[in-house]
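Worked Example 4.2. Read the sequence first, then its structure tokens.
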Amino acid sequence: MTDQNHGSSPLFSIIIPLEFHRGKFDHAWQAWQRQDIDSTLLEIILMIPPGFEDHGILPTANDRRVRVQFSEARHDIALCAEGASIASGRYLFFTESHCWPRPDVLSRCLRAFEQNHDWAAFSCGTVRVVHNRLSIAEAKMYQDDIENGMMLHPWKKVLDHGFATKREAYDACGGFRPEFGHYSEWVLAASYFEKAYKVGFLRDATMEHYYVGSLAPLSEFTRDFVEGEISYFSSNANRAKDVLEPPPEWVSRGNFDQTAARRIFFAVVDSLQETLTRPLQLARLITLASRWSIPAFLGDRVACSMALIEVWLRWIMLRLDPRQSVIRSFKSYIAALIKYQRLTSVRKLRDAHQPGFQQIARDFPAVPNGTGFHLLETYGDRKFRWSEPAACLEFQAPRGRYRLHLTCLPVRTMLANLDLRIYLDGRRIPPEAIRLSRHAIEIDIELTTPGAHTLLWICRAFKGKHDRRKLGLPIVNFDLLPWKPMSSTR
């Protein structure tokens, strides 16, 4: 390890991890030598992962501005975090080893901090460097995302191609979180937003970014991002709950819970016996039983297999696509790949029985441990989730007598055409213990054992306008209240 002692603290600390230099670090290094800022104002920290073999590209000059730090960290986000911990500059500048700055980047950054006192940080502009048709498509996809984040999105402002920040703001926001991989970029951006630190966009401070144009490293990057994303939402990390949104594959993970799906399946089969003489209801329940048979006995295996088939189909289309439409095919392939990687990441957590895996209540309190629910929606200023016509949720409670209160949106008539059957821990609740109103369902229950309990319902499907989904109950909230005698009919 080479580590120079600086006589005075530099203004900028340039932190460059060398995990993915893609053979372009020589371009980056030469560009950093040509900065038009006084060289005494900066230090360059090169973070070297274990097993690094390209020592020939490392600078050999005895330059006091350069610190070559050998690390045990293997991920570039971890290398960035470690580099920040040893940096001595007032401003931290994070970049990648396959990016190189134009000569005036640091002088523009300095002016930006001096002229925009309300900026805690900013991302620099980027220019793509491409060399084949896939790199063109890759660059187009990322440039569209960058433009949206920098110009339109409220908080996705951290771009590690070139990100400059005041040291105190970076520390206050928790810095890069190595445990979340490349998703740490979004976590940090959300933290700046949550703590009201302003992050600007300095388009004229231009970094050139080399796009490799190969599917293998891109697949590796997206998997790392997705695994970090799923790990983040399954963790107990202090997080900006109203800023970062969980992906649909995470929110809907309960729909592949085999134990809960079996409960629904057998409850539907049990209800079939009551409808043998009513053909329309019989057909409806057979359809419900069919819907829940696959997750009940196969879990998420079919969903993962179908997602993988979609990836292969999109890969074939991308390989065969003519040049004029390759960008569209490339984006479709990446979207399919991310969906598959999310499903498999969720499966890994499920198989490992990770703590917090089923804590859907943290994502949306109305549906603790829910199975048979659509994604979160907003109606006016109220958040809710539609259940499917058959659904269940799990809750924890000690022994005792309670009133379950399901608050619903008043968008379907509860008192008509509902054909509601409710089960508690596999036993049918008698109709006289259930009270319906326009916006709620109340159920009197008695729990004879403490611990986990399951509430399950089957109802007639509701048809929304221009909505092809099978809808059940629009759940706003779920409350377990002390029992009290029912008031007179409203």
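Now turn to a second chain, presented in exactly the same format:
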Amino acid sequence: MGLTSEAIETTLDILFGGKIPLILGAPGSGKSMCLNPGGEVFNSLAAYEGVDPSEFGFCDLRPCFMDVSDYRGYPFPNKETKTTEWLVPEFLPRDPDSKGLLVIEEIMNAPRGHHHALYQLTQERRIGDYILPDGWYIAATGNRAEDGCGVGKLPTALVNRFITVEWTPDAKDWGVWASEHGVDYRVIAATRWHPDFIETFDGRISGPQSTGRSVAAFAQILERSNINPTRSDRSNQSQRIFRMAKGAIGEDDAGRMTGFLGLFSRLPDVDAIVNGVSETVDVPKEADVQIAVIAQLARMATPSNIGNILRWVSRATDTMKIIFATDLETVPAMALSRDTAEYRDWRIENSKLFE
């Protein structure tokens, strides 16, 4: 289990314990994604409540985009009772039988005037006459002062209403998520060689830099372009890759990303491995090239050639074997290849690696 997985586990422990987690971490590290519909925390809460995720409610509350009056709604006169009543904001859940998750996003950027409304919401689950239905959980996210996001300091009384969760990005966890969500396998391989693409954030940098979010954005641009890093005829492709990467992850990381992707045009004969003549293909000595080969082979695996591939992978280092198994077991398209006698026997033979 990586550091991000541990943070998700802790977040769920807090929610199941009836308390409110405050997830603090760098921008682009996946804090909101795990809470949004489809995220690990959201889906786990829905399963815990026995509700289909499509029917589990979600409310995105962003104080930094709101006026203080937005919480309580607007007053209107009741002529019969001669009292003032309040129009409840449309975005707040009202069905008393509903279940869901209310997320207070970017709470560290909330203007001071919003704090008092958040006091009541987080402590009493209400704002004025409005009451949050019992079936709803509350969570919050925020950046840290060192992240350079212009965050303020929350009052100690408000901080005391939360249980803080430190969100530390982990390249291995991101790689699993990325594989499951169709991120380009070559970009995922690059993060294995350069884990700091995912794990390191410097709040002193004013321009773009690599985060899980920006690396995924670059991968999407790469996928939708006509560039194929596996081609040996790269011509001006490296320059194009560098330019698009620079705008997403910054100049220094763009250089490293471009350099790694260039490895895919210089791989050993993967076709020979796939076709069963792997004894003619040496295992590269360079670790970065090994990672690229493993990523390429996992992508090429089919039920008919998985045995050939495994014979070559068995000659690689234990680390490469683990990476190959991770790729094969997290990419949905690889399901047929891993559901074969050859792969099951190989997994048993190397079971000590996966304990």
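Notes for the reader: The CA atoms of residues 121 and 127 lie 6 Å apart. The mean pLDDT is 89.
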